[in-house]
Amino acid sequence: MALVLCLIGLLLAGSASATSSLAGSWRDVREGDTPAKLLAEYRDGELQRFDPNLLFRLPKGPLGTWVVLDPGTSPAQEQQVLSIYPPPLGMVTLYDQNGHNVSLTVDDFGQGPHGHGRLAFVLGRDVPVTAPLLLKFEPSARIAAPVSFRLQDWNHYLGDDAHWLVFASSSLAVMLAMALMALCFGLILRDLTFVWYAAYLVCYAAIQGIQTGFVYHPMGMDWLAGLSITVGSAAVALSVAFASLFMTRFCELQRFAPLLRIPVLSLAVGMVAVVLMRCSQIPSLEGIGQLLVNPLLTLGAALLLLASVIAAVRGSRHAWFFLAGWTPLLVLTAMTSAQVNGALPALPWLNDAGLAAGAFEAIVLSFGLADRALLIRRDRDQVRVLADRDSLTQLLNRRAWHEAAIVAMSDLGGRPQALLFLDLDHFKKLNDKRGHAAGDEALAAVAEALRQELRPGDLLGRYGGEEFVALIDGANAEEALLVATRMCRRVHRLEIPVDGNQLALTVSIGVAIRRATDSIDSLVARADQAMYDAKMAGRNRACLQRRPEEPNVPRRMAG
Fold first, then answer.
1. Span 83-101, pLDDT tens digits
2. In terms of domains, do 254 and 360 share one?
3. pLDDT attached to residue 3
4. Is the peptide bond before 86 cis (omega within 30 degrees of 0)?
5. Is the pLDDT of residue 556 over 50?
6. Among residues 244, 206, 144, which one has the least CA distance to residue 355?
7. Are 264 and 192 contained in the same domain?
């Protein structure tokens, strides 16, 4: 928010510098017109007057429009600059008192200074500062946007120009930086929501760059010269298409507004079709595409707003982010459209406010995307936990324990390791006598008892059925047997009845100490064999895995 306020401050600061007050007149271009004839008609009061200091939509004559600007009396003796804001997309020609003329377009790459965010004519020092200025606006295929005029001395012009460059560069940099960040998140998380958002921001930045002339000056993209209408129309249509695809996923329309999901996706398809028609080079299709653009834009904006409101009301967390970022831009677009039709002439800054609104929207929606990324990560972590944990005992399941044990064994660092293989005694009889529910309760209780006998860094898992495994780092044979003995005693103290008589649930544990040649599978196999030795020795005890040359008797038992 602070960044956006700063951008708006720069915009307002740039519009506050001193300018000369102008008077203006206009009329349509007619066959046989000459500059001298127009100036004579102006002196005779035959032209229609307007206020050039406010936004004014020049009537669109078939041959163009003449404009005469009168600076009146001015004490300034410095070099003057006449600027036209916002820059019209068609050609504008300035005629001076000596019969010379200078023609400019927003995508002009000729020699001499160029206005940034406007057309700028540098007046020669030999031009009287009180002489009327004659301009000719050539006809354009685009809808004529309202323009205002300024006459400034060179220093004030440079100050305004620097302010605008900082403002526009900052706004576009914010949008493109947020787009790059979203694209990176999309690639990392493999989520198309971020990709659609990045594409939308790039298209919106392209729209603003073309409308303000930023892509021409200062960026110098001369390959776009003459393509502003085609590229600009395509960028507008694609921005709506990508915005539709983005909000469908971001606001979770499938869940919160399912009836509007298909219309929103249809809007995206329709805007892509418009782009294809506009770029088809077939006159009939280009005309249809041009006719469809504005109605689809109007309906699309209303549809996206309606869908996001419904989704937000029904509980979509991210729909509120979308509304916070999208609504100001939508209001500004409506005001700009009204301005094109002659309303709000005293608010010329609305044109550049689109840059600030785009930066604001990029920041707000990026916060929403960051929140979405955190939720995705949390959900994936939860899924991973569920995938790694046994649902009954909350211990590592066999696969997860096996993977963790491999990692632990690969980072031994010369320390001893012991593996305990545990099997509950008489568990099948408990299930048969008391039922599976009692068996599940017994497994959960035993798992908790075993966990309390181990350190947080030891790996304890359910191997399957009534079998458990534990990998203890830094334990030699004696220490491992002590741990196993405590486990036997703790399980026995649970006093879980097996058949309702004197028989209680116990555990038999096999202990194996890792050898240099052991893999996790061979270590488990040796511990499993030691567990069977404990079973054969009478159950409810721990037994160390014997060496191959030793007789088949337990090394250590704990009753």
1. 888 888 788 888 876 666 8
2. yes
3. 46
4. yes
5. no
6. 206
7. yes
